[in-house]
Specification:
alpha/beta, elongated, 13 helices, 15 strands, Rossmann fold, Alpha-D-Glucose-1,6-Bisphosphate, Chain A, domain 4, six-stranded antiparallel β-sheet, three-stranded parallel β-sheet, 409 residues, single chain
Length: 409
Amino acid sequence: MSKDDFENEEREMAVGFGEAAKKAKVQRIVYLGGIIAPNEVMSPHLQARAETGEILRASGVPTIELRAGVVIGSGSASFEMLRYLTERLPIMTVPKWVNVRIQPIAVRDVLRYLVGSSSLKPEVSGVFDIGGPEIFTYKEMMQQYAEAAGLPRRIIIPVPVLTPRLSSGWVGLVTPVPYTLAKRLVISLRNEVVAAEDKIRSLIPDPVGGLTPFKKAVQLALTKIKEASVVTRWTDASMPGTPSEPLPTDPDWAGGSLYKDVRVVNSPDSIEEVWKRVEAIGGENGYSLATWAWEVRGFIDKIFGGVGLRRGRRDAIHLQVGDALDFWRVEEIERPKLLRLRAEMKMPGLAWLEFSLEKDTNSNGTIVTHTATYARRDLLGHAYWWSDWPMHGLVFPSMAKNVAFAKKR
C-alpha cells in the first residue's frame, strides 16, 4: 500500500467511525493524536493524525482530541526507538534533531487523561495538548534513560549531514523498529514537541503527587524485563497490571531484546520423578553431562569478581525461594511444575534458567521444557549472547536430557 493509499484509507476509516458513532448515539469520542508545533510544517504522519481528529470532531458526536508527544511505556513506538538507541549504542553519531525540545508523558498519565475525558460534560469538546512535567531535548532524554536504566552515560555526537532518509535507515539498522515507522517518527521529530497549552488540567486535575516524572516512567516501563517478561506465568509479580507493562498485542519489536533458548524433551517418567531430578540440580549433583563447561563458566565468573560455582546449595534435596544455588538464586518454585533460577554471575545483562514440567496425556510421561532467557543491557550484551551461543548447543541439550531421563545404573 502506498503512502497516499494509506492516508486515504485512514481518512475513510475516520469518516466511517464518526458516522457509525453518531448512528449508535455514542455520547463521547476521545481520540489520541500528536502534538502539533505552531507555525511549523507538519510531517505526513502528524498531518494524517490531525486530519483524523478534524473528521471526528465534525462527526456530530462530542469529541475530545488529546495531543501527546513521546509516550513513555513499553509498546509505544517512540519509546521503543528511544530504548533501543540508548541501550545498544554507548557511543553514537546522531542527526541534529536530537537537539529538538520534547515533552514526554508517561503512559499511565495518558490513560488517566483518556479515561477522565470520557466522563466530561457533553458540552466540553475540542483539542487539548497533554504532556508530562518535564521538557528535554531528545539527547537529554537518551541520557536520562541511560541513567534510569543503570547504563553508563552515553557519548552522543550530533552531526549535520544525516538527512531524514539516512536517519531512518540508521534507526532501522540499529533497532528492530520497522523502517517505514522509523521514518515517520524521525520526520516528526524535526519539529518541537511541547504542549502549547494545558487547558486539560483545569478539567482533569493532576493526581496526588503530580504527573509522573520521566525517570519514573522509564523505570515502570522497564518492569517488563525486571519482572514480567521473562516468564510464561508469573502471578506474584510485584507490579501486576501496571499501565507501563507490555500487552500481548504489542509488536514483536516492542519491549527490549530478550534472547531465549528453549529445549523440549519428552520423558517416560512421571512428573513427580522428573521433578526430583529438577530440584536436585547444582551443588555436588552438577548440571549435566557437560559439567566441565559449567566449571569453566564458574572459573571465569570468579576471575571477574563474581560468586563462582562454589556456593553449592543449602540442602541436597530441596530448594526454596531465595536459596543460593552456585551462581544462581532460586526466584520461583512451584512443585512439581516450575523452577526458575536467576543468574548472579557477572555478565552485561540479566539471565534466567527455567524448568517447567507438564504431564504428557498421551504417554503418561512428562514434557520437560528447559528455557534460558537473557535480557541484554547494551551492545556488549548482544555480543555476549552470540559469543556464548555455541556453548548453549553443547550444554543445554544435555542439561534438559539429564533431568528428563534417570541415570542408568
